[in-house]
C-alpha cells in the first residue's frame, strides 16, 4: 500500500472472475508480443510448422511431450525476453551497462531454448529415419 492506503495494483477479484481476468490479460500479452516482437512472430510460425511433424516423428507419448516441451520452452523464453526488453526500454533507451546486461541475459535464455529445440528435434528426426 502507498501513503494514501490505495492498493498498488488494481484488484482482480477472486474465483472464476479472477481466472477470466487472468486469462484475458494473458491473451493481451500474446497479442502484444505478436504485434511488437518480430522474433516472437517468427518463432510462433516455427512452432506452428513443427507441431504437426511432432505427431509423425514421435515414437511414444513421452517422446511427443519432449518435442512439444521444446517448442513451448522456446515461446516461453521469447516471451520472458520480450517482457524484459520492454521494461528495460521503459526505463531508458540510452545505453546502460546493467540494462544491457539484463537484455543480454534474456537473449541468452532464448539462445538456450533454441539450442535445446535444435538438439531435441535433430535427435528425434534421426531416430525417425533410423539413422541413429
Describe the model.
The protein has helices spanning 15-36, 38-57, 61-91, 97-128. The chain has 132 residues and is mostly helical. Helix 2 (38-57) packs antiparallel against helix 3 and helix 3 (61-91) runs antiparallel to helix 4.
Key features?
mainly alpha, 80% helix, Helix Hairpins, single chain
Question: What's this model, at a glance?
Answer:
The protein has 132 residues and is mainly α. The chain contains 4 helices and no strands.
Number of strands: 0
Tell me the helix content.
over 70%
Low-confidence stretches: none
CATH architectural label of the domain at 38-128? Orthogonal Bundle
Q: Roughly how many Å apart are the termini?
A: 60 Å
The description of the largest β-sheet is: none
The averaged pLDDT comes out at: 94
Helical/strand content category:
mainly alpha
Q: Tell me the β content.
A: under 5%
Number of helices: 4
Give Rg in angstroms: 19 Å
CATH hierarchy, class of the domain at 38-128? Mainly Alpha
Shape: globular
Fold topology:
Layout: H1 15-36, H2 38-57, H3 61-91, H4 97-128
Helix pairs in contact: 2-3, 3-4
Amino acid at each position: 500500500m502507498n501513503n494514501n492506503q490505495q492498493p498498488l495494483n488494481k484488484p482482480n477479484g477472486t474465483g472464476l472472475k479472477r481466472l477470466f481476468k487472468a486469462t484475458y490479460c494473458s491473451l493481451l500479452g500474446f497479442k502484444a508480443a505478436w504485434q511488437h516482437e518480430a522474433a516472437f512472430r517468427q518463432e510462433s510460425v516455427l512452432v506452428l510448422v513443427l507441431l504437426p511433424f511432432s505427431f509423425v516423428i514421435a515414437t511414444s507419448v513421452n517422446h511427443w511431450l519432449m518435442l512439444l516441451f521444446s517448442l513451448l520452452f522456446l515461446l516461453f523464453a521469447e516471451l520472458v525476453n520480450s517482457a524484459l526488453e520492454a521494461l528495460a526500454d521503459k526505463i531508458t533507451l540510452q545505453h546502460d551497462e546493467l540494462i544491457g546486461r539484463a537484455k543480454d541475459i534474456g537473449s541468452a535464455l532464448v539462445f538456450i531454448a533454441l539450442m535445446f529445440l535444435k538438439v531435441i528435434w535433430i535427435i528425434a528426426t534421426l531416430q525417425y529415419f533410423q539413422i541413429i
